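Entry 12.
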Amino acid sequence: MLHLRLCLSFVCFVFSFKAFCGESYGFRVYLKDKGNSGYTVDQPESFLSEAAIDRRLREGKWVDESDLPIASSYLEALASTGGEPVVQSRWFSTVVVMAEDSAVVEQLQELPMVDSVKWVWRGRRNPAIEDVRDTSRLCPSDSALKSRYGYAEKQIEMLNGVKLHEEGYRGKGMQVAVIDAGFMNVDRMSVFASADIIGTRNIVVPDESVYNDEAHGAKAFSCLAADMPGIMVGTAPEASYWLIKSEDGHSEYPIEEDYWAAAVEFADSVGVKVISSSLGYFMFDNEALNYDRSALDGKTAFITRAAEMAAEKGILLFISAGNEGAGNWGKITFPSDAENVFTVGAVTNEKKKSPFSSTGFTADGRVKPDAVALGTGVTVMDCSGNVCLGNGTSFATPVLAGLGICLWQALPWLSNKEVIELIQRVSSQYKQPDIEVGYGIPDMYKALNTERRNVRNE
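Predicted 3D structure (tokens):
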């Protein structure tokens, strides 16, 4: 499949677009620069939070030109074409413009600040869903077990995470962003009654609550933050969370990458240290936009470049490998090919690769996935507030990510990249990684003790 990059010739698209009456079109506009926004790198407090600046200072990551906002005058110029700027990336100087008439692309290309334009979406825009849900508390009907971890015990024990928690590391003081498709009823579920949710953000439909639809994010979040002893306890129940929706469930187009990049940039701006994301892309509703396996090189896909940029700014990212292991694609999905993110695959209770778990390596020969966690028969909470079992690297990822959060809480002097390397070193196949499980199943308590010994020996 041909992977179309930066520029597209729109001559062949204009006529077919006009045949779809009532639809809108989205174009990613690549700017030559960001213009004069009035902001400067020596006054980052005017466009980044104190927490974001503090994280940069601790990690030795200085604010630079990539962090500066796009000039409002540029956004106004884009809007003057009749289109509507809906999402942007300050890191890559891009703005997605939506319009009912696809001919707007010609006007966009004529603007002096525009370098190139790419078609990234077609469809009908969906209005925000009015928040008229029942607000009553959702309590699980499941019987409590004797184990503190309840039905989730096996997925935490597989990674030797119980001992990490027993040492007092449950995520306290760690600010985390969960980027997903939506968090249906999380605000109503009893298992999250003590969860520290700092805030939410809907990148796709800004006026709509992230709690209105899509259960996928709620299930992933439960692997991290559920805290109801006897029913389910997650892997980082005391961390502080931002819940960010970046997935548009109505269609699959490259604009998803723009939404995800905007979500990551927002997470960076509010100062998160860790991101857990169970989203991945490779195939779209228009096959001309599909990716090719050769693009799995860690530097081609827009979403992968955003993940890598976040890692370079000091954020520790846990990304799902994808569920394409039994399909035609087979391989990991984007952005899990980014070099400095931790890519998570899935295994069964028997510690064998889950059949659906996407395989590595990357196109340039790097080991991916980095490691694996339980992904077949994972305990999650459904949107009715009850225990259920889920399959997918989508759930293996937050299970492992939560213990990564706790590990970094215990070892705050490590950089994000050093945390990744440490978890790799304590995984079961570190000396013989393979395409199915990467470095294998990590022992998170061993990781803690390994670093402690290193510190004592210095």
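Annotation: The chain has two domains: 20-123, 153-457. The two ends are 51 Å apart (CA to CA).
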